[in-house]
Each structure stands twice: as C-alpha cells, then as structure tokens.
Amino acid sequence: MAGKIVVDTTTVHPDTTRDVAARFHGAGAEFAAAPVFGATPAAEAGQLLIAFAGAEVVYDAIAPLLKGVIAREVLVVGSEPEKAVLLKTTGYVMHLSLSEDRAKASTKEYLT
Predict the structure, then answer these.
(1) Tens of pLDDT along 8-42?
(2) Which long-range contacts (CB under 8 A, 24 or more apart) does 93-99 make?
(3) Which residues pair with 50 in a beta bridge?
C-alpha cells in the first residue's frame, strides 16, 4: 500500500474512519474521507456536495476529479478524515430533525 492514495466516500461512524485511516497510514498509504451529499440524480449530473478531510497532498492529487466533475462544491473540513464524516452525520441529524418537525406540524394533535 505504500505510496497509494485511498479516498473513502462512505458514511460510517467517525471512529471507524479514524481507525481505518490509522491502518492505511500504518501501511504507508495516504487516506482521506470524502463523503458525498446528494441523491443519484445529483451524482449523475455531477452536482454532489463533497466534504473532504485528509492531507493537503491528497486533496491536491484528487481535486481535478472533484469540483466540476462529480461535485458542484467541495467543503474542505481539515486534515483529520473523521471530521468529514462527522460533518456528514451531523447533516443527517439536522435533516431528520427537520423532517420530524414537518411531520409533527402536519398532524392535528401537534396543532391543538
């Protein structure tokens, strides 16, 4: 793995990302997390939003493949890969909270 770059676009627990990053770094590879925001139509149109966290050298190497190709924007959130996943999971929580509030607001019990 020495000299390789690994970019993980999955959404897992930040601790998992930190542990996986440590394993790849231990094997001599660079590792970054780049979870994506957006459904299939956004992906097909190259309009995803990507949260990137990893070494600057990794970002520099993959940046030409991100904005303007698969993403409309890239949010660089730091050098620790787990920070990108934390941003993504925080986004999920906010989305679910808003969905719950909308559902509650549409019920008669909530309005009375």
Answers:
(1) 999 899 999 999 999 999 999 999 999 999 999 99
(2) none
(3) 36, 74
CATH of domain 5-111: 3.40.50.720
- Tell me the whole-structure pTM to 2 decimals: 0.81
Q: CA Rg, the chain, in Å?
A: 17
How many other β-carbons are positioned within 10 Å of the β-carbon of residue 44? 11
Q: In this structure, are residues 31 and 24 in contact, taking their beta carbons and an 8 Å threshold? A: yes
| Sole residue written with tokens 């000299």 | 3
Identify the pLDDT of residue 89. 84
Residue with tokens 């993959």: 62
Domain residue ranges of the chain, discontinuous segments joined by +: 5-111
- Residue 84's pLDDT band, with cuts at 50, 70 and 90, is very high
Rounded Cα gap, residues 43 and 35, in angstroms: 12
